[in-house]
Every structure is written in C-alpha cells, then in structure tokens.
Amino acid sequence: MKKAVLYHKLDNSKVLCTACARRCRLSPGQVGFCGVRGNRDGDLYLMVYGVLIAVNVDPIEKKPLTHFHPGSKVLSIATTGCNWACAYCLNYDISQRRIVEGFYFEPEEVVKLAIETRSDGITYTYNEPTIFVEYAHDVGVLAHKHGLFNTFVSNGYMTDEAVDYISKFLDAITVDFKGNGDDKFARKFILITSYEPVFNTLLELKKRKIFIEITDLVIPRVGDDLNMAKKLSRWIVENLGPETPVHFLRFHPDFKMLDYPPTPIETLEKHVKIAKEEGLKYVYIGNVPGHPMENTYCPRCGKPVIVRYGFEILEWNLDEENRCKFCGYKINIVGRLKNNYSPFRSRFIFIDLYRRKYISRDPVELLKAK
Ligand code: SF4
Predict the structure, then answer these.
(1) Which pLDDT does position 165 carry in this prediction?
(2) pTM, whole model, 2 decimals?
(3) Residues 173 and 239 both lie in one domain
(4) Separation of 33 CA from ligand 1 center, angstroms?
(5) One domain for residues 39 and 104
(6) Whether residues 11 and 131 fall in one domain
(7) How far apart are CA 352 and CA 63, in angstroms?
(8) Confidence label for 340 from pLDDT (cuts 50, 70 and 90)
(9) Ligand 1, from 131, 154, 191: best to mutate by most atoms within 8 Å of Cβ?
(10) Are residues 309 and 230 part of one domain?
C-alpha cells in the first residue's frame, strides 16, 4: 500500500481520485469502484502497490500490438480490480475480485524478472492498468533505464492527468473498445455512462506521441451494429489517422454472457469491409487463428507483407526500413522484427513464489489497519 499521486483533497477528509474518468469522491474508509484505491485518514492510497495477481511472458501480438516491435516478448503484469464491470470479461476472476490479493514485487524485481526472461518490454495488462498507475509508473521509469519499453492494454477510460502521468514512461498502448463504441452497449454491459472519456484519452495520447493500436470486441446481437462500426472507423481515420491499426475481435461466451454465441466470422468480415471503406489501411480480425485478416497487407500493392498465424509471424516481407519488399511502400511499424519469436514466447514462468510475501486482504479492512 502506498500513497497515490493522482488525487486531490476536497477538504480535510474527502478526496477526489483523478486516475480514471469515474473520478470517485471518497470519504475516509471508502474504497473506489475499482476496489484498489481508498481513502485512509484523508489521503488516497493505492492498496495494490506491488501486489501482483498475474505475471507471465507473452508475445506482443497477444496484446494485440502488431505494428510495435513485432515478434518481441513482453513481461505481462496485473493486479486485482478494474474500473469497468464488463459482463463478458475473460479475466473477470481478477478484474472483478474485490480482495487485494497477490504476491509482492518491488518495481526493481519486476524489471529484473523482465531482464531474466529476456523480455523486450513490460506490458501492464489483464486488468485496467490505470487503476494501479502509480505502481506502473515506478516500474516503467525503471524499465526505461534498462532499455525496456512499456505498453498498456487499456480501456482508455482515463483522465487527462493520468495520460500526462503515463506519458513519462509509456511507449505504446492498445485501447480496447467493446460493442463498436456504442454508448447504449456501454451503459448496459460495462456500467459506464459514455465512451466520451475514451475518445478524449485517445486524442491526448496522440498529442503525446504514444503509439496507438485499437481493438473492438464485436458481440453478436448487442454490440455488432455496422453503423456504429462505420462511425468508429471514421472517427479513427479523422482523429488518429488512417495508418492506425484496428483489430475487430471475436467474442467468446464468458462470465455473465454465456448465453450469447461466438461472433460469426461473416460479421467480423463485414466490419473489416466497412473500416476499409472508411479509409483505414491496417484492419485485422482477432481471435480467429488462420484467418487471412491476421496478415498485414501493403496498402499500395495489396501483397502480404507480414503473414501471421495466431500470435506467430510466419513470413516477413519488409526491408530494413520496414518498406514493402514488393513496391517500397513504408509500412507504419515501430521497431524491427525481433528474432526471438517462437512458439514458446507465450509461457508461464517459474518464480520463487514460496519466498514471496502473499497478501490477501479485504480492502476496507486494509484501510483501517495501522
Ligand atoms: S481509479 Fe478507481 S478510485 Fe479512481 S476514479 Fe477510477 S474507479 Fe474510482
């Protein structure tokens, strides 16, 4: 537990959390919607500082980031809690857990682990990293000093203060839309009132030159409106640029939405068609291994410049400057292909957990403890 950075005192006892767009106002003893930030004696504390519920090595394509250091490995970390309450969350066991729980890792230990596992960067993922942003900041600043990059997988429901704070260490971000950015969907299945803060975050991230990829989870019947997909694609083209990679992801039944079917492939293909008609140059289908829209096609000559299967890169047709080998078009890619890609990039890592302190506390009780 550590005193937070992103908050204001409202008076002698109440605080306003400024990490995410919920902007919770908390009295002493109260915990925010996310379950990990709470008011203790008139100050805001991050209760999951250093308390990691998940640590794993992943291929960067799993985030997905397909245009940022392709083929690299990232150490992925997560805490419990989340500022959204998605009814379909694949990671609901950690995101909706309202216990501060996990093994304790100092920021130095996370960076050391990334180096030991030969990771190229650190990704803050599985739950919403904005809620543990002070810890991410301390890890991220240290990671940069050791030549590692930092990426977030985020819902983008942040404040300007949070974007400013993460811009000190963040290199790239995947911002995840669900249900085509439709507010009606968001109110019913995410428990937020509007997507407006997410669009605002994207504009602020772009100003700060953080590399952005977008995903959109397409959910049959309730989050697959093609007019909304068109609107979202147009917004991305006009505000982030046509070179922004966009991934339409297949939904799989989970958590409270077990009675919904997986997204039909044809629905995803219709989304791709619309996004391309709106001018997006790099559009993908995710969660459908083997689909041709996993590949990157040259926007000029149409030839496949990166051929993928799932998270693996099978073929690389770019030159030293990431230009198309067939026609010379410059593809929007940061970094060169890493040669360490292999089927073993995604794996659990052995950590001497038995030596580590395990924390499992009710957040309200934790705030009271001295
Ligand atoms: S990060 Fe948590 S406490 Fe802060 S505003 Fe968001 S939900 Fe509330």
Answers:
(1) 98
(2) 0.95
(3) yes
(4) 6
(5) no
(6) no
(7) 26
(8) low
(9) 131
(10) yes
